[in-house]
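Chain A, query sequence.
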Amino acid sequence: MVEVRDVVVVGAGPTGLALAIALRRYGLDVLVVEKEPSTKREARACVIWQRALEALRDLGCAEDLVRAGVVVRRGSFRVRGRLCGEYDLAMPGTAFPCPLAIEQDTTERLLRGRLRALGEDVGWGTEAVAVRVGADGAEADLRGPDGRGRTVACRWIVGCEGAHSVVRKTLGIPFEGERRTGLQAVQINAKPDWRFPLDRDLTQIFIQRGVSLIVSPLPGGASRFFAFRDDPAPRSEEPPGVEEMRALVARATGDPDVRLVPTDPPWINRARFHDRLAASLRHGAALLAGDSAHLWAPIGGHGLNAGLCAAHNLGWKLAAVHQGRCREELLDTYSDEQRRTAAGVMRDMRHNIIELPPGPLTLAALSLAAPVVIGSRWAERRTRLMMSDFARHHRPSALSADTAGRGPLRAGDRLPDLAVRDHDGRRRRLHELLSYRRWTLLVFEGGDESGDGEGRSAEPPGLPERYRAAFEVFRVRPEAGAAGAVPAGTLLLVRPDGYVGLRAAVGDRRAPAAYLERWFG
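Chain A, predicted structure.
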């Protein structure tokens, strides 16, 4: 007999594990297969930014990760060895104000533990050798660790297996883009002996002609030395030696006496990159996520984060369609939103002069401008918004509808974790009211209405009875004087992943009903 599953996830990196966790939280029968014999024992990506931490919280993983990582609160910036200033990495409006330094192998181990708590383990040493997609589902031919083959039928299959995705190649989806030339990254995990600070909450950036060096703290007391530089020998594939890394760090920092003591186990790496984006992330019953869907140079460390956020976006949508609660075209919004997000990250990182190795003119300009820019509140806020991923939105998405409303928060934006008062006057945070398992309707009332002692209402304004099980309604009041508060009289229908789907006026009884008919009908 052919084995039958709801979903087959190909690839057990962070994206595949996070997606499988999301789907199992909705009760789907998920098989995860990975051709490697176990989780990777390589350090690889080492930072999780604020938005991805919120996504991991919804999957029940964030607390374990925070305990295992290092919270990074500050950054410093030096050009030609001169300190140009320090900047604050903390963001308001979230339970995770600062990014987290944590090795990818630790992230994968903790995600795997969460997955096993929800069901069976990953099928290690199992390779997807062929995929077939039909009108009502898919089949995957798998080869196990003993060399035997089996076929698994499923309603959905998701390729999360990286740049050489079998799912993407089988479907013939173009992987559009090109190789990034003239750029390489070399990195080492080590303990330095040098003249610079070793504060455990500080990331340091050093800029010198032809090289940019980022030094970030790691759990256990070591640091990640991550350098972007030119590529004089593009055919060289060997990882750099410790002396090559020491000389590069000495050049970038202006400290000729620096010494590096590699960690045990060692981690030293040389990498080159492609900028590529799949033409579509959905082909019927097959979908793509993570590096199977998009690749770029790891400037800003957003590759891992983009994959985690993609899993967060796709998980609830795939479950809603599979369980018959939403129309199948909801999955097309995943493809559109994630492709737009990935293209935005690629665009931003290609112009990130802070981390790209500068030529002489750029270096001279940085020397003059950096002290002024770093001291600018506007520039600091803009940088924090970009790095945290809080500035990324889904406003152009078909799933975002704006019929009325005031204030900066619009349909498609991430809902900030603002302070509000519920009906009996208790101070709450908006994210306390959200759930990854459902939609949330927030009714922002004026400040003088009398309360009924409940923070939630059994009578959604103007919503058909058949949809009421899909969401909970909370009547709240904006906190007086709170920065970024949502104006009274605003109605927000918030998606399970925390983005605003609909913004309307409280008195508008048609907009919520029409929106739900559009997607749930």
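Confidence is low (pLDDT under 50) at residues 447-458. Residues 302-322 form the longest helix (21 residues).
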